[in-house]
Amino acid sequence: MTDKIAYVAVENALLHFDNAFSYRIPEGMPVQAGCRVAMPFGRGDSKRQGIVLGLGEEDADDLKTVSELLDDEPVLNDEMLKMCSFIKSHCFCTYYDAVKAMLPAGINYRLSLEYSVSADLGDRFYDLSDEYRRIVTIIRSKNNKVEKHHLLQELGYADSSLLDQMEAEGILFKNDAALRRIGDKTIKMIRLSDDAETLLQGMKLSAKQESVIDLLSTVGSASVKEVCYYTGVTTSVPDTLVRKNIAVYYDDEVFRVPRSSVSDKREITLTEEQQKAYDELSTLYHSDKPEVSLLYGITGSGKTSVFFKLIEQASNDGKDVILMVPEIALTPQMIAMFRAHFGDKVAVFHSALSLGERLDEYKRVSRGIAKIAVGTRSAIFAPFQNLGLIIMDEEQEHTYKSESKPRFNTKELAKFRCSYHKALLLFSSATPSVETYYYANEGRYHKHVLTRRYGTATLPDVVIADMNEEIEVGNTGVFSNILLQNIEENLDNGKQSILLLNRRGYNSYVTCNSCREPLTCPNCSISLTYHSANNRMMCHYCGYSVPYRTECPTCHSHSLRLRGTGTQRAEVEIAQIFPQARILRMDTDTTMTRSSHEKKLTAFANGEYDILVGTQMVAKGLDFPNVTLVGVLNADHMLYLDDYRSYENTFSLLTQVVGRSGRGKDKGRAIIQTYTPENPIIALAARQDYDAFYNAEIGIRKAMLYPPFASICMVGFVGENAKQTEGAAFAFTKQMTQLLQTEFTDIPLRVLGPSQAAVFKVSNKYRFKLILKCRNDSRFREMLARMLVQFSSNREFGNVTVYADMDPLSL
Ligand code: ADP
Ligand code: ZN
Ligand code: ZN
């Protein structure tokens, strides 16, 4: 005999038993793929949550049975379920890791439904059956609030049908406790009932009641608050009308759309060059194949205008759009513009939203109210059904890569979704990643180019300031003389300046003048940074901090000295030199509260400040026409990191920040301070010559076998015991070598390591890495997944966590 079967992925599964498990579906339970269920799992009678990946029919004699259906309708549709499998195989995680990334956190609380006894049960209690009374008594004994699963367990029920029955009879009610907790907001509304007209005939009404009825028959419906406000009655009047069935209450959900203070509704007429790019893209958008394009245009060339027009077109066609940005707080201008043009059709996704706000935006998308999702990484999961276009602005940015489980690359997911929907995927950048530009040149992507700044603006002039020469002339400060002169000139002319320093805190490190030891974090192999704001020395990795003191913990002499410069010190020093200047600092220390980025940027845009000092958050995306000077205080900081992408990152950062200058009527200038002016990357960035940079870099990548000529996969090992962690890394490597020599001889692979990670110790955990230069195809992923599964089931290394990270951000 065949039964209906659900194939279920289980929550909290470890990698080595993460499979689609078969369960029998009880007669009549309307289980659909994409719904969550509860079912027995493992030994004993403990239950777990799971998600139904698919349905089937087979002989189910020895299968366990689904206990409960938790969702009335699927939380994941067909595309999302496929994406779930895609993420599992590409990111080496479990199904549920993927599910959790895809759903907004608030949705996961759905399970904690609570039952309460109705307040107006009153004397009816004594008329209830024994069983009903037992249930009511249990719930009342627990503060009148019991979580559904606990209640079922206590009652010994397999399902909730009896409780549903009691709910239908008005004895119990379910409250979506968690949703209430995260602040889902509803407004109590009132309207006349369908029977109002009949009931009102011949009924004697008070003047107050009449005025409410008048109002409702004029406006149709209103919130109770409005009714009271306009008629001057208290809520008892509508209450009475509702009790007499003349009116009814209902709830209206309000979506808390994150607000923006800026409103911007400029009209856009594309320039000739922009129009050409738009026309090409528009053709591709109409193609019935999935297409990938790169919009490559210098800073200020109006890439935003081009994709704005594309979005407008998609929106007119009734298609859905995802616009990804690297950092939402830095794009208030763009959000404001989209809100002004598209209103409620825009949903915004980013990590600073509250759980409730996120859930709201998610619901607006899944119900088809919102058609354009703007946001950071998580926007890629917007549950659209009719996707026509995905845009990734500043596609080279590292924020598109997730650094925690599941370690997905948003670009890959965007490609997946565009293939599914046959949609257009558009990457946009002034400094594309080397991989993307390579693919565009090879013809794998389409390429569209903008070569000129919009309007009369031109690229700024760039000066390289050699800081060695400054020392020779006796200037040991943070600022070169030429930068100081230019800041002063800008102050005199009422122009604004941006200063970039890629280091937060007051100093970069603390050392002892006597024993020369740098002061490091006790939990991490990282030096401490002094913060003047709280007078403490802090670790930027684990958050450890100690009050500042001058005594060296190693030699106990009072010789600790602050070295190097961070944003706090730059701010202090510039204020000393120019006491009249109004200075704004922006880094992660100043922007811990939710809306402060936006407030600060708005204040800067309104001319309330002269100088903006900050980390790389001031380098990107900002469009302030009054900024005519950009100063880079130390361009060397990122250049000499031991990472194949450090040149690309430095070139991109410098070009981006230089591009903030001179975007309005006035010609801009940029000054790059460096101790290594001979470094070609700095000269190329000064010339803002991406093509020259690319031509040099692609040669290096090819010779060294780095992306796009190979994929990089890092296998990470983390454990509390250094020796054991190292042992695990070596054992893994040995087993993998065996596998490669026997079953996977066809895989092209270069193995580097194992070795210590760049930061060896973080939060008292030791880290080792194995670098694999590979071809990221299904064969390679099969081999690596096999290794990881094998390792995760190996008791010997139970205390060592092993993970794989494809295209890691740093090695
Ligand atoms: P990019 O993203 O390429 O750096 P932006 O899209 O920010 O450039 O454009 C730079 C500036 O030029 C912005 O202030 C933008 O509003 C303006 N701009 C660009 N194209 C147009 C256009 N066609 N019409 C009006 N303003 C435009
Ligand atoms: Zn010392
Ligand atoms: Zn630390």
Topology:
Blueprint: E1 3-10, E2 21-24, E3 36-40, E4 47-58, E5 68-69, H1 78-91, H2 95-102, E6 114-117, H3 130-141, E7 146-147, H4 148-155, H5 161-168, E8 172-175, H6 177-181, E9 185-192, H7 196-200, H8 207-219, E10 221-223, H9 224-231, H10 236-243, E11 247-254, H11 272-286, E12 291-297, H12 303-316, E13 320-324, H13 332-342, E14 346-349, H14 355-366, E15 372-375, E16 387-393, H15 410-421, E17 424-429, H16 434-442, E18 446-450, E19 461-466, H17 467-472, H18 481-493, E20 496-500, E21 509-512, E22 529-531, E23 536-538, E24 545-547, E25 560-563, H19 567-577, E26 583-586, H20 596-605, E27 611-614, E28 627-632, H21 646-658, E29 669-674, H22 680-687, H23 690-704, E30 711-719, H24 722-742, E31 749-762, E32 765-774, H25 778-792, E33 801-806
Parallel strand pairs: 12-17, 12-18, 13-15, 13-16, 14-15, 16-17, 19-29, 20-27, 20-28, 26-27, 28-29
Antiparallel strand pairs: 1-2, 1-4, 3-4, 3-5, 6-7, 6-8, 9-10, 9-11, 21-25, 22-23, 23-24, 30-32, 30-33, 31-32
The protein binds adenosine-5'-diphosphate and zinc ion (2 copies).
One zinc ion binds at residues 512, 514-515, 517, 552, 554-555, 557, 559.
